[in-house]
Amino acid sequence: MAWVLVLAVLLVALANGANDNAKGVGALIGSRMAEARPALRFANLAALIGSLAALVVAVQFDQRLVKAFGGGGLLPAGADVTGGYLLAIALGAAATVLAATRLGIPVSTTHALLGALVGAGLVKVGARQLVWSALVAKFVVPLLLSPVLSCAATLVVYPAVRRLLAAVGVEKQLCLCVESVDQPVVLRDGRLALASGRALTLDEVSRCETRFAGRILTLPARPLIAGLFYLTSGAVCLARALNDTPKIVGLLVTGAVLAVAPSMTAVAFAMVIGGILFSRRVAHTMSDRIAELDLEEGLAASVVTAALVIAASIAALPVSATHVTVGALAGAGLARGTARLHTISAIVLAWVTTLPLAAVLAAAAYLLLR
Predict the structure, then answer these.
(1) In angstroms, how far apart are the furthest CA atoms of the chain?
(2) Domain of 177, in residue numbers
(3) What does the alpha-carbon distance between residue 8 and residue 88 come to, in Å, rounded to a whole number?
(4) 3-class secondary-structure state, position 250
(5) Rounded mean pLDDT of 80-100?
(6) pTM of the entire structure?
(7) Running DSSP on this structure, what letter comes out for residue 291?
(8) Is residue 256 part of a domain?
């Protein structure tokens, strides 16, 4: 049972990397400051650093997130946390996140773990003995507030970013767009044919890459802004891994299968493997389907996301990096009227169903395992 639990927890970590690693660079790719492939490599590296940093934080400072998601946080005092119970939680969370990843939907591993904790807990001790007050205070409130807070913060930060760039002399350039055009033509014999050609457009149109010109402290503006964008995007990836790794590791530590250090190391590399192999669909959703972004909006979203997730990690709050990131991207899109509300609505619907789906799957798994 012990090694089966290890494999199940590593499956949760792999699913987390597949669904979450690309979220930090979604704005970077969406604003056309980087191509998808190098941006994803950068995201995976930053996530690995964040996961290993979580090891230092847990060993040297505290293990509050490790303990909170260890399976016993919602059970009454004295309840026995068995290997089958922990395995059911891992299977329910992993299946939920993997299904969403297959569909390209960014969901919260935190929410999936929370749902699995509830589902397995209901089967184990029943609804009356489950510690619902801890569920609301420690988990539900931070998870619900995080997307609203990040969206509102981005709406505030975006105008400040615009004013800052304008103050240092950075301006948008018009771009020359070359598009393929197919047009039907009538031949001399009366037949129809399709003629292919090129159309040139000089404008800030949706298919153009928005570029920025100017100088900051006598240096070209674009490389400096790109560097800042990479810095904030990397901070998002690092902070997300810093926040998520202890939650996943909690299942192994509580089960006394592995100590904190080897658990976090194994989880870190499983998350990177998941990001390398399976993150492209979610990356496409985050970069292109939530909002049409330029550099100003993407930079504002990255700054807000990094600040909130890092603050949550320091305070050991179970904030979902997914909710924070999507909320920030939606706020950036709303600020300029480019948010794609149908995609955002679909993502919110997935968020609503993540917790109950994970709960049902974990409950079913525990019924079979106990």
Answers:
(1) 89
(2) 173-203
(3) 9
(4) helix
(5) 94
(6) 0.81
(7) B
(8) yes
Read off the pLDDT band of 68 (50, 70, 90): low
| Rounded CA separation 357/108 (Å) | 12
CA–CA distance, 46 with 49 (Å, rounded to integer): 5
Residue 323 lies in a domain: yes
* Residues 311-328: b if buried by 16+ CB within 10 A, e if exposed: ebbeebbbbbbbbbbbbb
Q: What does the pLDDT read at residue 207?
A: 44
Both tokens of 327, joined, read: 């909320």
CA distances from 264 to 7, 60, 255, 314 (A): 14, 14, 14, 17
Distance CA 356, CA 365 (A): 14
Q: Which residues are registered as beta bridge partners of 171?
A: 213
Residues for the chain: how many in total? Answer: 370
- Please choose, from the candidates 304, 286, 290, 287, the residue with its C-alpha nearest in 3D space to the C-alpha of residue 336: 290
Residues 149 and 178 in one domain: no
Does one domain contain both 198 and 324? Answer: no
- Distance of alpha carbon 243 from alpha carbon 83, whole angstroms: 24
Q: Which residue has the higher pLDDT, 133 or 101?
A: 101
Place of tokens 């950068």: 42
Q: Are strands 215-216 and 219-220 parallel, antiparallel or unpaired?
A: antiparallel
Q: Say which amino acid occupies 7.
A: L
pLDDT band at 343 (very low <50, low <70, confident <90, very high): very high
Nearest to 31 by CA among 201, 229, 164: 229
Residues 178, 15: Cα–Cα separation, whole Å: 39
- Asked if residues 81 and 72 have their Cβ atoms less than 8 Å apart, the reply is yes
